[in-house]
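Field: sequence (string)
Field: structure_tokens (string)

Example rows 1 and 2, in order.
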Amino acid sequence: MSKTTRRQKAFLIILGIFTSLIVVECSLRGAGLIYSFLQEKENKSSQLTDTDEIRILCIGDSMTALGCRNSYPAQLEDILNVKKSDKKYVVLNKGIVGKDSEGLTMILDNLLRKHDPHIVIAMVGINDRANHYHPMIVKIERFLNNFRTFNLATWLWHGIQVKVHRNNESRALNQRDFEIEGADLDNEQLVKGMFVNMQRQIDQMNSYLAGKNDQTKNQVKEEIAIIKRNQLELLIAVALYHRTRHDFPKAIGYLQSAIELDKDNYLAYVEMGRSLEEMGKYEQAITFLHRANKIGPVTYLTNFELAKCYEKMGNLEEAESYYSRVYEISRITKKENISGDMGNWFVRNKDYQRAEEALLKALKERPDDYHLYEQMAALYRMGGNEDEAGAVKYLERGYKLRQMAESFLPETVHNYNKIAEIVMGHDRQLIVMQYPLRRLKPLKDIFWNAEEILFVDNEASFFDTLKVGEFQEYFNDFFAGDFGHCTGKGNRLIAANALKAIEEALSRQ
């Protein structure tokens, strides 16, 4: 009997691995089908009755969070309760400013358990822009996401990374018996209890120091310092929560406590300045923002807030000075979309020539940034330049660049599918919304179970509206390049688009 060659052994090993993967893939798909069937059969009790309160949970970033009663969730609730008076509709706004898709996956399960919504609306991903990937990597990632075995391996690897990260943190982090992301930041008693509990830990550690050697004292002091930082983190997080909901007195109260705890805390002064600016107390805001610049790094954010304050006070010369600093900082740090903020400044002051000059300069620095081309086209159509042919030229170039760059980042693909998995695991209907003026099809394509999801298109309605309306009527800024944070009018349009999907979701239930 002839010996098996090395090549034959390698072939048998590869064949065995390939066969095993096929078996695992088929098993996972089969188990998924069985689970879905059993879940649908056993959850008939979750069906609605005529007397039920219908709860809709909205998750996302600042596009969801901001606006208070003019936010799209608040307006959606108003529309539903007027149009459909047979039931009471409660729309919960759980958007978080600056939150990326990964952060939302970490808190979603807690939100679902706490609020038990019938429908979940998600509009996420715009903050997933820290890293840039080659388009080929994105295509490979998208192809691999079609396989359950790849999703399982990704999930396991992600779990391992999280555990390794946690194990590498300081021993003192285990002292934290709270999780800010999952906490009910509107519950003052709970927040106070969390803060008092951390203070109790600090007091216990201080009493433990007596009679200990220097090495032990240093370790305990390090743990105390970390818990104190956690206290500050809690106070600032709660303040930010209240500021984005326009509850400024509460936000300022928590920030004052943070400053009392640490008089050199940069973030506390920045948030205090932002809260006062939004309240219209510009002189007070400027004082805190200057203090932030003095004790911390000179950042894009503080200078931008200072520019806004001076502009609103009518001190245009000082405002222009700070807008120029913002532009210079962004140029050095390569921060995206500053030209949109500068464009807003020049357009508001009807200085269209300088707006055009700033954008053309930015285009020389970043010739592949499709946001800049779209902003040039928008500027031409806003009254800065009546040359329609010029606007079309920039729009076409921007559209081509956008198509090349529109592929979603791998983490966005992974996290959006994770959101779908969590929501469907609770047997709830998921509605996924695209951002204004963005194409819906690329978003649909990232989901492997897209047929179970309802989608909301915010491209066509915004394009049609902007043909007759001004950009500033629907957007407050250009933070995303082709769109920005919505005004009340813009959010009303989003709410109206979401209504159609909600009606279909209710008919399914």
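Row 2 begins here:
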Amino acid sequence: MMKKIGRTIFVWGMLLHFTTGRAQSTIELQKGDTLPALSLNLQKGDSMYKGNLKNFAGKILLLDFWAVHCLDCIASLPKLYALQNKFKDELKILVVTTNSQQEVQYLWKKFKDNEQAREWVNAGKQMTFVYNDTLIQQYFKPPSLPSHAWIDKEQRFIALAYASSTNSKNIKALLKDEAIRLDEMAIINIDPDNPLSWIQSTGENPAPVIPLSYSMFTPHIEFGMGGARFLREVKDSISKLAKEVKILNSPILELYRYAYKGAAGFRGFIPYDRILIESSRKEEFYFTGVQQEYPAWAKNHTYCFGLQLPPGCKENALEIMQTDLDRFFNLHTRIEKRSVKCFVFKKLADFKSTEMVGGARQRVKIMKEGKLYYVLQNVGLPLLYSTVSGVIYAMDKFKLVLNETDNEGIVNMQIAWNEDKKEISLPSLQTALRAQGLELVEEFREVSLLVISDRK
């Protein structure tokens, strides 16, 4: 039985840095180095001014390496703004980005009508930015985003750490010259000419040897503010089988959907409507709340998984992952044929294909006689089935919809749209289909499913 482990140090969570035969840059700062005097163009709101990193001596300086494509970076802005306001002149946070001012302004404009993102934008407009940066990045070389560089009051470089370390407790301790605990970015140098260099021990105090193969779990890792997820898979170039898998912060159900990728004849992830959860812990498997509640839920219900097979192994990493997931979560999963109640989309005897009307094929909402309708024009049955499946998915993503038509025929139809609920109701859909000589009914069918149940 695999045991849950802590996350202070974990093999695959380390950032791997590949070195080449070229000489290493002498500009990169090491822990304890004094900050150089770098001239900067700073901007806060509409005010632009020149400054120097040396201007911030006597206070803690925090460099937030940031980008417009990084959701965690953007979502962390309110937290950073709150810390800046709390510590005032004792702390200076600079948002350092390679993006231009125009790119950031475009992001603010894009988010202006998004209620959830409004807090991010308002905070961002109050922070001090360094745009178009290429110089500061060379000194700190952040391997991922968001990364925070910590500099103490004497302008000494303390560490490059994950955003999870940026909190009041650490800032207060550093102001008092007390020890702080940072989730540092551990970097292992790898020589591409010697691929085994990252597991070889050197020096008088050799590090523990990391095995060529492993399988491991950790709880949720806070390396950003948005409950970020990460997935990496390496396949054998000949067999095309997965040989290495690394997943960060994934719910249990998504781990299984990935592990069973390609099973039961599906090309990609197992669809939700082909999953049957019989476990008594069903509520732990996937998130059902509103988006704003996800980060809090994710801390207790998402996991990290790493698996690497040894060289020459002919097994599929995904099949081993299935077994490891079952052991870790004490579950029993398998692909199994079951008779389940599902929706069946089929033709009635009076179905007649309609003639093509003027204009292109389209699916649009229109107002007609004071009522809103979802109109399908010149739509074939495969596309109509896709629309029907989407309606059912919005109601229950685990409800299966089978297409038992011959896919022959064109329809022109309208379905009543519920503007209050932003959806098409099942009765409205069924009524509209019957008018076209089609039906959507619940019946039992035998299908292949991913069954998840508790281990006895």
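free_text_note (row 2): The CA atoms of residues 358 and 378 lie 9 Å apart.
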